[in-house]
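Good morning,

Attaching, inline, the C-alpha coordinates for the sequence recovery test we're adding to the shared suite. The designed sequence is right after.
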Protein backbone atom coordinates (compact mmCIF):
# COMPACT_ATOMS: atom_id res chain seq x y z
CA UNK A 1 0.00 0.00 0.00
CA UNK A 2 1.51 3.39 -0.94
CA UNK A 3 2.48 5.77 1.83
CA UNK A 4 1.04 9.30 2.15
CA UNK A 5 3.84 10.86 0.11
CA UNK A 6 3.19 8.50 -2.78
CA UNK A 7 -0.51 9.19 -2.61
CA UNK A 8 0.10 12.95 -2.59
CA UNK A 9 2.26 12.55 -5.69
CA UNK A 10 -0.61 10.75 -7.35
CA UNK A 11 -2.91 13.61 -6.38
CA UNK A 12 -0.57 16.16 -7.88
CA UNK A 13 -0.22 14.20 -11.10
CA UNK A 14 -3.96 13.71 -11.35
CA UNK A 15 -4.68 17.38 -10.81
CA UNK A 16 -2.03 18.25 -13.35
CA UNK A 17 -3.71 15.96 -15.87
CA UNK A 18 -6.99 17.71 -15.17
CA UNK A 19 -7.59 21.15 -16.60
CA UNK A 20 -5.19 22.76 -14.18
CA UNK A 21 -5.43 26.28 -15.55
CA UNK A 22 -9.20 26.49 -15.41
CA UNK A 23 -10.57 27.92 -12.19
CA UNK A 24 -13.82 26.00 -12.07
CA UNK A 25 -12.12 22.68 -12.53
CA UNK A 26 -10.54 23.49 -9.18
CA UNK A 27 -13.98 24.04 -7.75
CA UNK A 28 -15.11 20.76 -9.23
CA UNK A 29 -12.08 19.02 -7.73
CA UNK A 30 -12.56 20.48 -4.26
CA UNK A 31 -16.26 19.77 -4.12
CA UNK A 32 -15.96 16.20 -5.36
CA UNK A 33 -13.18 15.58 -2.88
CA UNK A 34 -14.77 16.73 0.31
CA UNK A 35 -17.48 19.35 0.60
CA UNK A 36 -19.20 17.35 3.31
CA UNK A 37 -15.97 16.91 5.20
CA UNK A 38 -15.19 20.60 4.99
CA UNK A 39 -18.58 21.62 6.27
CA UNK A 40 -18.22 19.27 9.17
CA UNK A 41 -14.77 20.71 9.86
CA UNK A 42 -12.76 17.62 8.97
CA UNK A 43 -9.84 17.42 6.57
CA UNK A 44 -10.08 16.03 3.04
CA UNK A 45 -9.29 12.36 3.06
CA UNK A 46 -6.72 11.01 0.65
CA UNK A 47 -9.10 8.40 -0.78
CA UNK A 48 -11.69 11.11 -1.39
CA UNK A 49 -9.15 13.34 -3.09
CA UNK A 50 -7.87 10.50 -5.24
CA UNK A 51 -11.42 9.67 -6.27
CA UNK A 52 -12.03 13.30 -7.10
CA UNK A 53 -9.02 13.38 -9.35
CA UNK A 54 -10.84 11.17 -11.80
CA UNK A 55 -12.94 14.11 -12.94
CA UNK A 56 -11.11 15.15 -15.95
CA UNK A 57 -9.37 14.44 -19.06
CA UNK A 58 -6.61 16.19 -20.52
CA UNK A 59 -4.77 19.42 -20.23
CA UNK A 60 -6.13 22.66 -21.57
CA UNK A 61 -5.59 22.87 -25.33
CA UNK A 62 -3.69 25.80 -26.74
CA UNK A 63 -5.71 28.44 -28.57
CA UNK A 64 -5.85 27.80 -32.29
CA UNK A 65 -6.87 29.75 -35.33
CA UNK A 66 -10.21 27.97 -35.17
CA UNK A 67 -10.85 29.48 -31.73
CA UNK A 68 -9.21 32.91 -31.70
CA UNK A 69 -9.17 35.35 -28.81
CA UNK A 70 -10.78 38.60 -29.84
CA UNK A 71 -12.13 41.76 -28.35
CA UNK A 72 -15.04 43.84 -29.50
CA UNK A 73 -18.57 42.74 -30.22
CA UNK A 74 -20.40 41.22 -33.13
CA UNK A 75 -23.54 40.12 -31.34
CA UNK A 76 -26.44 38.27 -32.81
CA UNK A 77 -29.81 39.99 -32.47
CA UNK A 78 -32.30 38.12 -30.27
CA UNK A 79 -34.25 35.43 -32.04
CA UNK A 80 -37.88 36.62 -32.27
CA UNK A 81 -40.07 34.55 -30.00
CA UNK A 82 -43.26 35.96 -28.45
CA UNK A 83 -43.36 33.75 -25.38
CA UNK A 84 -41.50 31.08 -23.47
CA UNK A 85 -41.70 27.57 -24.89
CA UNK A 86 -41.59 25.82 -21.52
CA UNK A 87 -38.34 24.08 -22.49
CA UNK A 88 -34.78 24.91 -21.42
CA UNK A 89 -31.46 23.17 -22.10
CA UNK A 90 -29.02 24.48 -19.50
CA UNK A 91 -25.28 23.59 -19.44
CA UNK A 92 -23.23 24.43 -16.36
CA UNK A 93 -20.01 23.41 -14.58
CA UNK A 94 -20.04 20.41 -12.22
CA UNK A 95 -21.30 21.05 -8.69
CA UNK A 96 -22.10 24.70 -9.40
CA UNK A 97 -25.72 24.75 -8.23
CA UNK A 98 -27.52 23.65 -5.10
CA UNK A 99 -28.18 19.93 -4.66
CA UNK A 100 -31.36 18.55 -3.15
CA UNK A 101 -30.53 17.04 0.26
CA UNK A 102 -32.90 14.12 -0.26
CA UNK A 103 -31.85 13.35 -3.84
CA UNK A 104 -28.39 14.41 -4.98
CA UNK A 105 -29.33 13.90 -8.61
CA UNK A 106 -31.77 16.82 -8.35
CA UNK A 107 -31.35 20.54 -7.83
CA UNK A 108 -33.95 22.47 -5.88
CA UNK A 109 -33.44 25.62 -7.94
CA UNK A 110 -34.20 23.71 -11.13
CA UNK A 111 -37.21 22.00 -9.54
CA UNK A 112 -38.48 25.34 -8.24
CA UNK A 113 -38.09 26.94 -11.66
CA UNK A 114 -39.96 24.12 -13.37
CA UNK A 115 -42.82 24.44 -10.90
CA UNK A 116 -42.96 28.22 -11.13
CA UNK A 117 -42.94 28.34 -14.93
CA UNK A 118 -44.56 25.02 -15.87
CA UNK A 119 -41.36 24.22 -17.76
CA UNK A 120 -39.11 21.25 -18.36
CA UNK A 121 -35.38 21.77 -17.86
CA UNK A 122 -32.59 19.56 -19.13
CA UNK A 123 -29.75 20.52 -16.76
CA UNK A 124 -26.34 19.07 -17.61
CA UNK A 125 -22.85 19.47 -16.13
CA UNK A 126 -21.19 19.60 -19.53
CA UNK A 127 -18.60 22.33 -18.89
CA UNK A 128 -15.29 21.26 -17.34
CA UNK A 129 -13.30 24.25 -18.61
CA UNK A 130 -13.85 27.24 -20.87
CA UNK A 131 -11.47 26.30 -23.65
CA UNK A 132 -12.51 22.70 -24.23
CA UNK A 133 -16.20 23.59 -24.04
CA UNK A 134 -15.69 26.37 -26.57
CA UNK A 135 -13.83 23.94 -28.80
CA UNK A 136 -16.83 21.62 -28.63
CA UNK A 137 -19.45 24.19 -29.64
CA UNK A 138 -17.38 26.50 -31.87
CA UNK A 139 -17.69 24.47 -35.11
CA UNK A 140 -21.46 24.28 -34.64
CA UNK A 141 -21.72 28.02 -34.01
CA UNK A 142 -19.45 28.79 -36.97
CA UNK A 143 -21.80 26.76 -39.16
CA UNK A 144 -24.74 28.87 -37.98
CA UNK A 145 -26.42 25.98 -36.19
CA UNK A 146 -28.03 25.40 -32.80
CA UNK A 147 -25.59 23.97 -30.24
CA UNK A 148 -28.38 22.20 -28.39
CA UNK A 149 -27.91 24.55 -25.43
CA UNK A 150 -30.19 27.48 -24.60
CA UNK A 151 -28.17 28.67 -21.62
CA UNK A 152 -24.49 28.23 -20.79
CA UNK A 153 -22.15 29.48 -18.05
CA UNK A 154 -18.68 30.71 -19.10
CA UNK A 155 -16.08 33.06 -17.65
CA UNK A 156 -15.93 36.78 -18.42
CA UNK A 157 -13.05 36.66 -20.91
CA UNK A 158 -14.85 33.92 -22.85
CA UNK A 159 -17.96 36.13 -22.97
CA UNK A 160 -15.86 38.81 -24.67
CA UNK A 161 -14.42 36.28 -27.11
CA UNK A 162 -17.75 34.70 -28.04
CA UNK A 163 -19.55 38.02 -28.35
CA UNK A 164 -16.82 39.32 -30.65
CA UNK A 165 -17.24 36.29 -32.89
CA UNK A 166 -21.01 36.74 -33.05
CA UNK A 167 -21.58 33.53 -31.10
CA UNK A 168 -23.89 34.98 -28.43
CA UNK A 169 -27.41 36.29 -28.72
CA UNK A 170 -28.22 39.66 -27.24
CA UNK A 171 -30.40 39.71 -24.15
CA UNK A 172 -32.89 42.39 -23.20
CA UNK A 173 -32.09 42.82 -19.52
CA UNK A 174 -34.54 45.67 -18.87
CA UNK A 175 -37.51 43.88 -20.42
CA UNK A 176 -36.78 40.22 -19.74
CA UNK A 177 -34.43 40.12 -16.74
CA UNK A 178 -35.76 42.92 -14.50
CA UNK A 179 -34.66 41.13 -11.32
CA UNK A 180 -31.07 41.64 -12.44
CA UNK A 181 -31.41 45.42 -12.52
CA UNK A 182 -33.24 45.41 -9.21
CA UNK A 183 -31.09 43.01 -7.21
CA UNK A 184 -27.61 42.64 -8.78
CA UNK A 185 -24.71 44.35 -7.05
CA UNK A 186 -23.35 47.47 -8.73
CA UNK A 187 -20.07 45.74 -9.58
CA UNK A 188 -21.92 43.31 -11.86
CA UNK A 189 -23.89 45.82 -13.88
CA UNK A 190 -22.41 47.19 -17.10
CA UNK A 191 -19.07 45.34 -16.79
CA UNK A 192 -16.12 46.12 -19.02
CA UNK A 193 -16.09 42.64 -20.54
CA UNK A 194 -19.77 42.97 -21.60
CA UNK A 195 -20.95 46.60 -21.69
CA UNK A 196 -24.57 47.06 -20.65
CA UNK A 197 -24.83 43.31 -20.02
CA UNK A 198 -25.78 42.95 -23.65
CA UNK A 199 -24.85 39.26 -23.77
CA UNK A 200 -24.63 38.02 -20.20
CA UNK A 201 -25.51 38.28 -16.53
CA UNK A 202 -23.33 36.84 -13.75
CA UNK A 203 -23.86 33.42 -12.22
CA UNK A 204 -21.19 33.46 -9.47
CA UNK A 205 -17.76 35.02 -9.12
CA UNK A 206 -14.53 35.04 -7.14
CA UNK A 207 -11.40 37.10 -6.47
CA UNK A 208 -7.75 36.48 -7.25
CA UNK A 209 -5.69 37.93 -4.41
CA UNK A 210 -3.27 36.83 -1.70
CA UNK A 211 -3.62 34.23 1.06
CA UNK A 212 -1.26 33.83 3.98
CA UNK A 213 -0.67 31.96 7.20
CA UNK A 214 -0.12 34.48 10.03
CA UNK A 215 1.68 31.88 12.13
CA UNK A 216 4.36 31.72 9.43
CA UNK A 217 4.46 35.34 8.26
CA UNK A 218 4.46 36.68 11.85
CA UNK A 219 2.72 39.81 10.54
CA UNK A 220 -0.15 40.98 8.41
CA UNK A 221 0.12 40.79 4.65
CA UNK A 222 -1.52 43.61 2.73
CA UNK A 223 0.38 44.26 -0.48
CA UNK A 224 1.67 42.75 -3.72
CA UNK A 225 5.10 43.74 -2.36
CA UNK A 226 4.75 41.08 0.34
CA UNK A 227 5.16 38.47 -2.39
CA UNK A 228 8.65 39.94 -2.93
CA UNK A 229 9.78 39.97 0.71
CA UNK A 230 13.10 38.07 1.08
CA UNK A 231 11.97 37.10 4.59
CA UNK A 232 9.58 34.63 2.95
CA UNK A 233 12.09 33.16 0.50
CA UNK A 234 11.12 29.59 -0.33
CA UNK A 235 7.69 30.09 1.22
CA UNK A 236 6.12 32.16 -1.59
CA UNK A 237 3.63 30.63 -4.03
CA UNK A 238 2.69 31.96 -7.46
CA UNK A 239 0.29 30.67 -10.14
CA UNK A 240 0.86 28.81 -13.38
CA UNK A 241 -2.33 30.48 -14.67
CA UNK A 242 -1.17 33.20 -17.05
CA UNK A 243 -4.22 35.46 -16.92
CA UNK A 244 -4.28 35.66 -13.14
CA UNK A 245 -0.55 36.10 -12.63
CA UNK A 246 0.05 38.64 -15.39
CA UNK A 247 -3.01 40.71 -14.55
CA UNK A 248 -2.12 40.74 -10.85
CA UNK A 249 1.48 41.65 -11.73
CA UNK A 250 0.20 44.59 -13.78
CA UNK A 251 -1.73 45.85 -10.78
CA UNK A 252 1.41 45.38 -8.72
CA UNK A 253 3.30 47.85 -10.90
CA UNK A 254 0.40 50.33 -10.84
CA UNK A 255 -1.22 49.50 -14.20
CA UNK A 256 -4.92 48.70 -14.51
CA UNK A 257 -5.21 45.59 -16.69
CA UNK A 258 -7.71 47.13 -19.12
CA UNK A 259 -5.21 49.93 -19.83
CA UNK A 260 -2.16 47.69 -20.21
CA UNK A 261 0.11 47.98 -23.26
CA UNK A 262 2.59 45.32 -24.30
CA UNK A 263 5.34 47.49 -22.80
CA UNK A 264 3.48 47.40 -19.48
CA UNK A 265 3.28 43.62 -19.71
CA UNK A 266 7.02 43.42 -20.33
CA UNK A 267 7.64 45.54 -17.22
CA UNK A 268 5.37 43.25 -15.21
CA UNK A 269 7.27 40.26 -16.56
CA UNK A 270 10.57 41.77 -15.41
CA UNK A 271 9.21 42.11 -11.87
CA UNK A 272 8.18 38.47 -11.92
CA UNK A 273 11.61 37.42 -13.21
CA UNK A 274 13.24 39.37 -10.36
CA UNK A 275 10.95 37.62 -7.90
CA UNK A 276 11.84 34.15 -9.23
CA UNK A 277 14.62 33.22 -6.74
CA UNK A 278 12.21 33.80 -3.84
CA UNK A 279 9.42 31.60 -5.19
CA UNK A 280 8.94 28.08 -3.88
CA UNK A 281 6.97 27.05 -6.97
CA UNK A 282 4.43 28.08 -9.59
CA UNK A 283 1.24 26.22 -8.69
CA UNK A 284 -2.03 25.11 -10.20
CA UNK A 285 -4.80 24.38 -7.70
CA UNK A 286 -2.31 22.38 -5.63
CA UNK A 287 -1.24 25.64 -4.00
CA UNK A 288 -4.14 25.09 -1.59
CA UNK A 289 -2.53 21.93 -0.20
CA UNK A 290 0.82 23.70 0.09
CA UNK A 291 -0.79 26.56 2.02
CA UNK A 292 -2.75 24.20 4.25
CA UNK A 293 0.26 22.06 5.19
CA UNK A 294 2.60 24.99 5.86
CA UNK A 295 4.85 24.75 2.80
CA UNK A 296 3.74 28.25 1.88
CA UNK A 297 3.59 31.29 4.14
CA UNK A 298 2.13 33.60 1.49
CA UNK A 299 0.73 32.88 -1.96
CA UNK A 300 -1.46 34.05 -4.78
CA UNK A 301 -4.88 32.58 -4.09
CA UNK A 302 -8.47 32.25 -5.23
CA UNK A 303 -11.03 33.41 -2.69
CA UNK A 304 -13.30 30.36 -2.99
CA UNK A 305 -10.44 27.97 -2.21
CA UNK A 306 -9.45 29.92 0.89
CA UNK A 307 -13.03 29.95 2.15
CA UNK A 308 -13.03 26.16 2.01
CA UNK A 309 -9.60 25.90 3.66
CA UNK A 310 -10.74 28.11 6.53
CA UNK A 311 -13.12 25.39 7.73
CA UNK A 312 -10.02 23.38 8.66
CA UNK A 313 -7.76 26.31 9.58
CA UNK A 314 -9.65 29.50 10.51
CA UNK A 315 -6.32 31.30 10.98
CA UNK A 316 -5.66 31.41 7.23
CA UNK A 317 -6.30 34.85 5.75
CA UNK A 318 -7.27 36.13 2.30
CA UNK A 319 -6.69 39.74 1.28
CA UNK A 320 -7.17 41.87 -1.78
CA UNK A 321 -3.76 43.56 -2.16
CA UNK A 322 -3.60 47.33 -1.68
CA UNK A 323 -2.66 47.58 -5.35
CA UNK A 324 -5.78 45.64 -6.38
CA UNK A 325 -7.03 42.15 -7.16
CA UNK A 326 -8.88 40.45 -10.01
CA UNK A 327 -12.63 39.87 -9.94
CA UNK A 328 -13.44 36.98 -12.25
CA UNK A 329 -17.07 36.38 -13.13
CA UNK A 330 -18.79 33.29 -14.52
CA UNK A 331 -21.76 34.36 -16.60
CA UNK A 332 -25.00 33.01 -18.00
CA UNK A 333 -25.24 33.55 -21.74
CA UNK A 334 -27.31 32.34 -24.69
CA UNK A 335 -25.48 30.73 -27.63
CA UNK A 336 -26.38 32.04 -31.06
CA UNK A 337 -29.24 30.20 -32.78
CA UNK A 338 -30.54 28.80 -29.48
CA UNK A 339 -34.07 27.44 -29.84
CA UNK A 340 -35.40 28.78 -26.54
CA UNK A 341 -33.84 32.20 -25.83
CA UNK A 342 -36.92 33.52 -24.04
CA UNK A 343 -36.82 30.59 -21.63
CA UNK A 344 -33.12 31.26 -21.04
CA UNK A 345 -33.85 34.86 -20.09
CA UNK A 346 -36.69 33.65 -17.90
CA UNK A 347 -34.22 31.46 -15.98
CA UNK A 348 -31.80 34.39 -15.67
CA UNK A 349 -34.58 36.44 -14.13
CA UNK A 350 -35.61 33.58 -11.84
CA UNK A 351 -32.19 33.10 -10.22
CA UNK A 352 -31.91 36.84 -9.51
CA UNK A 353 -34.68 36.56 -6.96
CA UNK A 354 -32.79 37.04 -3.66
CA UNK A 355 -34.27 33.87 -2.12
CA UNK A 356 -33.10 31.75 -5.06
CA UNK A 357 -29.70 33.45 -5.13
CA UNK A 358 -29.32 32.62 -1.43
CA UNK A 359 -30.30 29.02 -2.06
CA UNK A 360 -27.57 28.63 -4.68
CA UNK A 361 -24.93 30.43 -2.62
CA UNK A 362 -25.54 28.30 0.46
CA UNK A 363 -24.28 25.38 -1.57
CA UNK A 364 -21.59 26.71 -3.93
CA UNK A 365 -19.95 29.23 -1.52
CA UNK A 366 -18.63 31.51 -4.26
CA UNK A 367 -19.29 35.24 -4.38
CA UNK A 368 -23.00 35.87 -4.74
CA UNK A 369 -23.95 38.64 -7.22
CA UNK A 370 -27.07 39.47 -5.16
CA UNK A 371 -26.14 41.33 -1.93
CA UNK A 372 -29.65 40.86 -0.47
CA UNK A 373 -29.03 37.10 -0.29
CA UNK A 374 -26.81 37.67 2.77
CA UNK A 375 -29.74 38.61 5.04
CA UNK A 376 -31.74 35.66 3.76
CA UNK A 377 -28.93 33.22 4.58
CA UNK A 378 -28.69 34.76 8.05
CA UNK A 379 -32.42 34.17 8.51
CA UNK A 380 -32.02 30.57 7.35
CA UNK A 381 -29.29 30.19 9.97
CA UNK A 382 -31.62 31.54 12.66
CA UNK A 383 -34.40 29.20 11.53
CA UNK A 384 -32.01 26.24 11.76
CA UNK A 385 -30.95 27.30 15.24
CA UNK A 386 -34.57 27.62 16.36
CA UNK A 387 -35.13 24.07 15.12
CA UNK A 388 -32.17 22.81 17.15
CA UNK A 389 -29.91 22.20 14.15
CA UNK A 390 -26.78 23.93 15.41
CA UNK A 391 -24.49 22.39 12.78
CA UNK A 392 -26.48 23.83 9.87
CA UNK A 393 -26.93 27.13 11.70
CA UNK A 394 -23.18 27.47 12.31
CA UNK A 395 -22.41 26.63 8.71
CA UNK A 396 -24.90 29.14 7.28
CA UNK A 397 -23.70 31.86 9.64
CA UNK A 398 -20.16 31.19 8.42
CA UNK A 399 -21.26 31.55 4.79
CA UNK A 400 -23.20 34.76 5.45
CA UNK A 401 -20.40 36.34 7.49
CA UNK A 402 -17.56 35.54 5.11
CA UNK A 403 -16.19 38.42 3.00
CA UNK A 404 -15.14 35.70 0.55
CA UNK A 405 -18.82 35.11 -0.21
CA UNK A 406 -20.15 38.62 0.40
CA UNK A 407 -17.15 40.94 -0.14
CA UNK A 408 -16.91 44.23 1.70
CA UNK A 409 -17.23 47.49 -0.21
CA UNK A 410 -13.52 48.07 0.42
CA UNK A 411 -12.67 44.77 -1.26
CA UNK A 412 -14.90 45.44 -4.26
CA UNK A 413 -13.43 48.91 -4.69
CA UNK A 414 -10.02 47.33 -5.29
CA UNK A 415 -10.85 44.62 -7.84
CA UNK A 416 -10.57 44.76 -11.62
CA UNK A 417 -11.51 42.58 -14.57
CA UNK A 418 -9.11 40.65 -16.78
CA UNK A 419 -7.92 42.45 -19.87
CA UNK A 420 -9.63 40.97 -22.94
CA UNK A 421 -6.84 39.84 -25.27
CA UNK A 422 -6.65 39.74 -29.02
CA UNK A 423 -5.08 36.62 -30.52
CA UNK A 424 -1.77 38.44 -30.99
CA UNK A 425 -1.83 39.79 -27.45
CA UNK A 426 -2.58 36.39 -25.98
CA UNK A 427 0.34 34.88 -27.87
CA UNK A 428 2.70 37.61 -26.65
CA UNK A 429 1.48 37.40 -23.06
CA UNK A 430 1.86 33.62 -23.07
CA UNK A 431 5.40 33.80 -24.44
CA UNK A 432 6.44 36.34 -21.82
CA UNK A 433 4.83 34.35 -19.03
CA UNK A 434 6.44 31.07 -20.07
CA UNK A 435 9.83 32.70 -19.61
CA UNK A 436 8.83 33.41 -16.01
CA UNK A 437 7.50 29.96 -15.18
CA UNK A 438 10.42 28.19 -16.87
CA UNK A 439 12.89 30.32 -14.94
Amino acid sequence: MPDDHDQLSRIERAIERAVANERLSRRSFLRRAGRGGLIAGSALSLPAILAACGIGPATTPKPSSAAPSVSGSASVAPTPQPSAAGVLNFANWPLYIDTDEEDETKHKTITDYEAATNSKVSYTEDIEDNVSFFGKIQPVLAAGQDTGYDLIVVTDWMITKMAGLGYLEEIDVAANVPNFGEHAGDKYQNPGYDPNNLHSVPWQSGITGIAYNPKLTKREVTSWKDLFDPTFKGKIGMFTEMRDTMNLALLGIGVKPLDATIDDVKRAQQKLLEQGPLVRDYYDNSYADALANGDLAVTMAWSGDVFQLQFDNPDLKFVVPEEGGILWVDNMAIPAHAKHPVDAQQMMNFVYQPEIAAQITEYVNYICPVPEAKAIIEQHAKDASDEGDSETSDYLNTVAASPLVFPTEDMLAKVYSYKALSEDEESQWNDLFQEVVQG
